[in-house]
Amino acid sequence: MNIDFSNAQRAEVLTQALPYIKRYVGKIVVVKYGGNAMVNEQLKQQVMEDIVLLWLIGVKVVLVHGGGPEISELMKKLGKQPQFVDGLRVTDQETVDIVQMVLAGKVNKTLVNLLEMKGGKAVGLSGMDGRLIEAKMKDERLGFVGEVTKIHIGPVHDLLDKGYIPVVSTVGCDKQGNAYNINGDTAAAHIAGALNAERLIMMTDIAGILRDKDDPSTLIPEITLSQAKELYASGVISGGMIPKVDCCVTALHAGVKNVVIMDGRVPHSILMELLTNEGAGTWIRRDEA
Question: Model-level pTM?
Answer without folding.
Answer: 0.91
